[in-house]
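User: I'm new to structure prediction. If I give you an amino acid sequence, what do you actually give back? Let's try with this one:
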Amino acid sequence: MTDKGELTHRDDHYGTDSPTYLEKADSRDGQRNPALDYFSPADHKRIKRKIDLRLVLTLGLMYCVSLMDRTNMPNAAIAGMTVELEMVEPNGIRYSIANLVFFATYTLFQPVATVCTRKVGPKIFLAGICAAWGAVVMGMGFVQDWTALTGLRVVLGLFEAGFFPGCVYLISTWYVRYDTGKRYGVFYLIGSLASALSGILAYALSQMNGLGGYTGWRWIFIMEGSITVLLGIAGYFLIVPFPDQDAWKAKGFLTQREVEYVMATVEADRGDAKSEPFTLGRFLRPARSIKVWGFAMMFLCTTTMAYAIAYFLPIILRDRMGFDIAASQCLVAPPYAFGALIMYCESWLGDKYHVRGPQILTNCVTGIVGLAILGWTDTVGSQYFGIFLLTGAVQANIPQVMAYQANNIRGQWTRAFCSATLVGGGGIGGIAGSLIFRPQDAPEYIPGLWACITACLIIGSITIALDLWFMRQNKRAAAGEIVLEGADSSFRYTL
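Assistant: Good question. You get back a string of structure tokens that encode the predicted 3D arrangement of the chain. For your 495 residues, that looks like this:
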């Protein structure tokens, strides 16, 4: 800890010669916030590590089971669920219906759930809905017909609706803009372990076939749901509040002075550390901005591909590439592991060099190449390589789009609304992803591949349009013609 004034105004961690949030603190209102001088640069890094371990790690583990619980359908399907619950006929549409109904409630209730995260508090709200959807997943292991399974998927969407946008919102309030990319990357990377390991775990659980009189696919739901309930209970003790909600009272977390310091750095960076009182008009005001819907459309198209891969990759490996059930479940892991590596590297580079758009465009091109290799080559090896490229590009783009949005908005309720619209777009993408690879298109699934290529082109087009507009607005702000986002004159959009 330092005496006042000992902390230098240069923060090498951010890797830029432009004014840092510490330097801007002197110019925001003409006076430096004394909370910024409580700690040395070494203390600054130590505090961030404590936040990372308590916040990002906890939420990442809970998101891991969230992804696993919503995308375990294909593993159960090839383990016998579709046959036992008579979902094969007519035309396999019952399986697609059971997948997509999740996203009806998941999308519809996100705006309300995001407000609840702030009003109820993340500790109670996020942990509570996690335990609740875990109980629903357990119940899916006891259904006797496909309509009961479909009904539980509707309830699952209701409980999961608030988790992802709540996490995105909560993380954004604890970090300055160019720390969010890595944190979103790690958060989603941990979550991606679900996609990488779910097939292997499902195969192991399906070997419990016959135990207690239940078939193997039922044990997939029962055991994975049990794990989720336990994590939800643990989350109650580990999740921390928003920084302005007396977060220092969280046992074993930061001191009051450390929380004040975090809030001061966020205030100096973007001027929205504290939440304004809630009004419906204030919450809905960002809906007038076209960029908000551009971010939502980008996330919609990205998640369309992500869910299409999650729901159908084991089926594609079996039907198109000829692998048996065990191999189809286990071969899902390597592409997702590759995607996790690409995701973190891009997140680190984006924070270091303050860029988002070029990485999103690169992922779009890579995704198109992967889709072309998967769809229009003849050998199994080349097709599997195409899956690597596609999965890596899609997985990497999810935190990139999240960070792209987070870096270019400000205001607590704006963040709440934009988190809801972003993930709401993701919910609509989930509906589309559930229907892209149709049974009648097996085994080549060419129409689905063309749909994914179109999604890549839409993401790329919106990114180029937004970057050009951001560039123009930055130039106008530099010339003193406008003030961006109602912030101080130093705020600039991230390209």
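You can read the tokens as a compact description of the fold. Here is one thing that stands out. The CA atoms of residues 321 and 379 lie 9 Å apart.
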